[in-house]
Amino acid sequence: MKRKYPHLSQPITLGNVTFRNRMFASPIGATDITADCVPGDRTRAFYELRAKGGAAAVTISELVVHPETDASHMLHLDLQTVGSLASFTFCADAIRRHGTIPSVEFSHSGQYAGTYMADKNKKQSLTQYGPSDGVRPDGKKVTALTVEQIDDIVARYGETAALAKRAGFEMIMVHGGHTWLLNQFISPYFNHRTDEYGGSFENRMRFTIRVLKAVREAVGPMFPIEFRMSGSELFDGGYDLEEGVRIAQAVEEYVNLIHVSAGSYQFGFFNTHPSMFSPHGVNVYLAAEIKKHVKVPVATIGALNDPAMMEDIIASGKADVVYMGRALLADPFLPEKIVSGNDDKIVKCLRCFTCMAERPTTQTRRCTVNPLIGREIEGTEVPPAARKKKVLVAGGGVAGLKAAVTAAQRGHQVILCEKSDQPGGILKCEQAIDFKHEMYELGIVLEAQARNEGVEIRCNTEVTADYVEKEGADVLILALGSNPILPPLPGIGGDNVVVVNNYYLEKEKVGDSVVVLGGGLAGCECAIHLAQEGKQVHLVEMRDTLAPDANIRHRPILMQMIEKYVTAHTGYQGLQITKEGVLCKTAAGEEVLVPGTSVICAVGQRSNREGIEALRNAAPIVREIGDCVKPGNITAAIYQGYHAGLDI
Fold first, then answer.
1. Exposure of 366 by Cβ count < 10 A (0-12 exposed, 13-18 middle, 19+ buried)?
2. What are the counts of helices (DSSP H) followed by strands (DSSP E) for the chain?
């Protein structure tokens, strides 16, 4: 057949290994690491799902090669720990049996040891080793590695490489970017040594070159080795792209693939992991420039999920391989859909950072749009139902659509009723905010999935108890959502007031001077959008903190954007809305007018409990899901909808 994306679908050979296409799964941290620092069963299943989905390579993340100087609770591979080699072998097997090449990332955190540890007290007790003595910005002391320690680390890279090859891994990625140890030695910002490992470019590269030589000696001449680097550190005092080119040239004779990422852990988390506020492919230019100056293949990464964009990257010669991380959590079958020409069925990553927020918070993984992530061991297939039932879903938002899709996949007869003229629920609101458009697209994809699975969708249909009885439903799933809270303020019903849920319908009512009333996640994101359109925006929040409902990864970039674009007022209680703005009372009791000819009301949502009470006994089995239970987020709606469908 003629491939829709022929360059992405084309195999590539690195060393003596042929990869089936140009789409690789980037290393993402394990979901369950045992007390002995080996991968558990959940971790194996976590990586296996992306292999099932058609990625050409799946890389297990951050195997710490030298625990003595990097005491993070991450993966270790050695012969001393009973079960260590076996656990890694099972992981490699699980990836390889689906036609995917298993790879493993070798890492050393250096002065950032303990980054992902949940026990912050234990993290503070670790010795942080780096190239030079010093103090981190957070006040943590950094101790310089001795030459003897460097020698031992180099030797351990080789020993671990031999074990990884024995376990069945067919490629090794050496992590030399993102301010981990090798990058710390390469970077003039971190490396202030005066011996053979510091000073000149050649000296700063010496540690990395020795590591690559040790790995090569351990695995042989044709075994694929990949070097992961930051094309530029992207902060003042760090190295730039010109030096990134020199780094790539220095390592190319020792490796088969140069993986060009960006940024640093300390100064550029959102450069390395582009947020929803950044363009897709924002870091591709780094790989494209480095590729001009080296002879080995080059890989690129950075918020890539659009097939046309990735096809162009390969076809135009910007890179030879595209890596995806979060995109393959959202849809592990993205590569298979691209190769088979079913790219219209891709569920796109929202770049909401839910997956990354779970790691430091709960030591697990979770994805907003994919309820399987981190729970793959519990089953990745929807089993057929033993007895087919008639299922009526009331509400066509995220939770209702996901429940309908899952129930239909089980073989049930499913009818979904939506009281408005279009499914999608609160996701419809996101179509007017450019950096959240993929959330709007999620509603479209879920609706398409529902129709494809045979769900009968009835719009402009409100479900009543009589309606349920007439349909004779065996199961009623209530996904009635929530309603916006309207504070009882004088002027709230004025023509200059727009409820945030209705902004996409009433954009023309919003002038060039706006007050956003409510500083939660929805209010903050709306304020940023309006300010980026060139409007003067004031954000009013009665609490002392903005966006406490944002996750710990998304909130920092959100606050950066607020500081850049919006005038925020915390501790301000709204008293009255006028044509000139919102009259507020400050924490000190002073009355002030926050100016704005338009007001966006974004003070929160309230569960539709009235609708629940009217339908609680309308069918033999009634299940409540989503915002009608408790106003939440897309993650909760997807998860509850999926499991409600499974339970029938």
1. buried
2. 21, 28
Compute the distance between CA of residue 185 and CA of residue 200 in angstroms, rounded to an integer: 11
Tell me whether strands 536-541 and 567-570 are parallel, antiparallel or unpaired. parallel
**Mean pLDDT (whole number) for 603-620:** 94
Locate 487 and state its tokens: 């504070």
The two three-digit tokens of residue 454, written as one number? 């045979």
182: helix, strand or coil: helix
| Interatomic CA distance for residues 558 and 563, integer angstroms | 9
259-265 mean pLDDT: 94
Helix axes 201-219, 241-251, angle to 10 degrees: 40
Q: Is the pLDDT of residue 118 over 60?
A: no
Longest dimension (CA), the chain: 84
Is residue 502 pLDDT above 80, yes or no? yes
The four Cα atoms 253, 255, 258, 259 give a dihedral, to 10 degrees, of: -160
Grade residue 508 by pLDDT with cuts at 50, 70 and 90. very high
Contact 268, 226 (CB under 8 A): no
Report the C-alpha gap between 497 and 578 in whole angstroms: 10
CA count, 13 A, side-chain hemisphere, 277: 20
Helix (H) or strand (E) holding 573: strand 573-578
pTM: 0.95
* pLDDT value for 140: 87
| Dist CA 263 CA 302 (whole Å) | 11
Quickly list H helices, 187-262: 201-219, 241-251
For 506, the token pair is: 């009433």
Question: Does the pLDDT of residue 188 top 90, yes or no?
Answer: yes
Q: At what angle do helices 41-52 and 84-96 cross, to 10 degrees?
A: 20
- Residues 67-95 have pLDDT tens digits of 999 977 789 999 999 999 999 999 999 99
At 265, the pLDDT band (50, 70, 90 cuts) reads confident
pLDDT score, position 117: 58
Is residue 589 exposed (0-12), middle (13-18) or buried (19+ Cβ within 10 Å)?
Answer: exposed
Of the candidates 507, 535, 404, 501, the one whose C-alpha atom is nearest the C-alpha of residue 457 is 404
List pLDDT tens digits, range 148-183. 999 999 999 999 999 999 999 999 999 999 999 999
- What is the SS3 assignment for 172? strand
Please answer whether residues 67 and 21 qualify as being in contact, where contact means their C-beta atoms are separated by less than 8 angstroms: no
CA 145 to chain centroid: 34
Place of tokens 């076996």: 86
